[in-house]
Task: inverse folding
């Protein structure tokens, strides 16, 4: 399989070249265009129960599309929001993704939901995260550009800016300080990461955009 990512950081998109016998899995509705003869079938990734959990608590689609081409061909995918498309090669390791960040993967990658705790439910990221593990290529997307940071120690991040992180990083979710500071600062809850590992941060948030648009629509 060959792939190319273009358009980052504003309007990223992914083009995948499949050889005969290869297949590729992508989030439902993300296909932009493809070569004639491309075959697609919808399926529940991980079975009915796991797919339903991802949909209800992880913010992902119930179904995914599995693409193949009998003679080999190309397919282009685009995320629903403007921003960057990123890739990560998994070799038995894992990556946590926030709700809505998963875009596509090769068949050797498995997705599982992980409970983030009751505090995460009020953080704007949802109570559950996706754990991506296995062997293969993983593709995910952001809203806005992505900053990759290597954490060695500690880092405090607004919850809406987190896209994904290595499982080697531990985190807690809490306020900016006192209850008054949390409520009046406009920052809400933050995630405090500790340890050593990589974290992916997006430069924009959908919540911020919605908050800016609301007064304009009155």
Result:
């Amino acid at each position: 399989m060959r792939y190319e990512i273009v358009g980052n950081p504003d309007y990223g998109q992914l083009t995948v070249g499949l050889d005969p016998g290869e297949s590729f899995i992508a989030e439902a509705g993300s296909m932009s265009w493809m070569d004639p003869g491309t075959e697609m079938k919808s399926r529940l990734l991980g079975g009915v129960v796991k797919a339903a959990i991802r949909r209800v608590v992880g913010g992902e689609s119930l179904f995914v599309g599995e693409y193949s081409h009998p003679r080999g061909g190309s397919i282009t995918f685009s995320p629903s929001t403007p921003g960057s498309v990123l890739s990560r090669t998994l070799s038995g390791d894992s990556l946590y993704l926030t709700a809505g960040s998963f875009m596509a993967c090769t068949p050797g990658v498995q997705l599982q939901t992980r409970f983030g705790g009751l505090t995460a439910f009020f953080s704007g990221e949802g109570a559950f995260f996706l754990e991506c593990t296995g062997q293969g290529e993983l593709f995910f997307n952001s809203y806005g550009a992505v900053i990759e940071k290597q954490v060695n120690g500690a880092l405090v991040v607004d919850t809406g800016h987190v896209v994904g992180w290595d499982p080697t990083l531990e985190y807690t979710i809490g306020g900016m300080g006192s209850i008054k500071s949390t409520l009046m600062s406009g920052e809400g809850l933050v995630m405090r990461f500790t340890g050593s590992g990589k974290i992916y941060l997006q430069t924009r948030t959908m919540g911020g955009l919605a908050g800016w648009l609301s007064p304009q629509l009155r």
Notes: Helices lie at 48-58, 118-121, 179-184, 206-216.
